[in-house]
Amino acid sequence: MTPDQRRGFVEFPADVADSYRRSGYWVDRPLGELLREGAARWPDRPALLTDTGPRTYTEMDVAADRMAYGFLELGIMPGDRVVMQLPNVPEFSTVLFGLLRAGAVPVLALPAHRRSEIEHLAAVSGATAYLAADTFGGFDYRELATAVQAAVPTVRHVAILGEAGAFTDLRTLATDGGALPDIDPTDIAVLLVSGGTTGLPKLIPRTHADYRYNATASAAVCGFGPEDVYLATLPAAHNFPLTCPGILGALATGGAVAFVTDPSPDSAFGAIERHRVTVTAVVPPLARLWCAAVEWEPHDLSSLRLLQVGGARLTEPDARAVAPALGVRLQQVFGMAEGLINYTRLDDPDDIVCTTQGRPLSPADEVRIVDNEGKDVAPGAEGELLTRGPYTIRGYYRAPQYNAHAFTADGFYRTGDIVRRLTSGHLMVSGRIKDVVNRGGENISCDELEEHLSSHPAIQHAAVIGIPDAGLGEKVCAVLVVSGSMPTLADIRTFLSDRGLATYKLPDLLRRAEALPVTAVGKIDKKTLRSLLQR
Ligand code: OOB
């Protein structure tokens, strides 16, 4: 790791790292080698399925190397952070592997992120480059690139997939080269973006060793093998479709990967049929939509063996509907970009699969369930989930103050999720104590949104809360104390978009209040606020 990359990175303690290595959880090979090992084992098998035909493991491996040489030639140095913001296109995988092999650290931004988030991610990571598609979903990322470069001077390079205009064309970068840098598996491989609880999104440093284990152990639990075809339905930059087992899990086990940019039944069912997809992952609202859509979308889904659902709580009725509607096995996944992933197992009884959110991936995952005072609760009782293990971070990147309360002194991550544990080890998620709204699997930091709202000239105080919603689980409600006339929802949404906020974070509902209830210590009392609104 370069000294610049190391700054603000909380490493695993040396003795713990040694024990993970000795137990075989960590192997001393970098993440970018997964594909090279795949090419050695399954040279002619398809690795990537695209609308213009398949690419074999060998072809992808060569493409990844050429991409890596191209990045180095452009001036991206080993250790550099690179904000990568691509939609679910086949190039996602070659760009990712190219960066990994060049020793650069992709900062995996979601396509939905806008100026506010991207500038923040680039600034905190000290990124030297920004990679994006020209346009996607009606949004022009070249304009965003211009704004990011103007605001964050470290961003020296911009490469664009598609019509690059004044920027470097990502497609013409690939080139032949001599040597690639050596990579230490304990270095940061990728920086994931957290849903965040306070302020702007946090960066989650995942090392080569831990992230590789995340992918391979997940692939084993999900029974991945060379016959599998994984469809990236959710945004590929998210931990769930990327590595749980996702794209990386499929490529680690000889399977093939396909991408869709649009998760609607119309588009995704077509892709499942065309590519004979066996596994994919969705969030609960999408699972429910897919179950309904089999009535009107006449596609052959018979290849699908496993539907993973996670990111937000799946209700029991929705869980029970999956197998009969889609003819697949359901798997509930309760995970987090910070690390810990819980899966229901393929051989779990149906009742467990439909009523729990799974159990930890690794025998080395440590789970504690604690009360308000941090004491372990009685077996089976509810409490906050704390966790530590071979693929759970020990700290957010460059966030020492935040880390001081997000982690315990002995390195457990405070998830902010309220769970209870069955004797089988399966967890049931019953709530959360962190101040986020989970809108259909997208976590939105209330704090971040409140800060933006407070900068509106008419708004004196703002509180953001989640309102239960049958479709999305929760909707974003902004409660405003205003001077003068109340702005409309459309006004507020435009105001926030103009500030560069991602669309999924915009409020769905507005409520006016004369004052906000406060707790004894003077914090906004969201519990009271929620009950006032639901009356
Ligand atoms: C996944 O990761 P993140 O980082 O976007 O969000 C994590 C948070 C969890 O702490 C929890 O609050 C919530 O999202 N969550 C769930 C859940 N899965 C995630 N809440 C209830 N039930 C579930 N099944 O969302 C993520 C990462 C990897 C795999 C799957 C999901």
From TrEMBL:
One of its GO terms (molecular function) is acid-thiol ligase activity. The keyword Ligase applies. It comes from the Bacteria. Pfam families: AMP-binding, AMP-binding_C. Residues 448-523 form the AMP-binding enzyme C-terminal domain. Residues 36-397 form the AMP-dependent synthetase/ligase domain. The keyword Iron does not apply. Keywords: Ligase. This is 2,3-dihydroxybenzoate-AMP ligase. It comes from Nocardia stercoris. The lineage of its organism: Bacteria, Bacillati, Actinomycetota, Actinomycetes, Mycobacteriales.
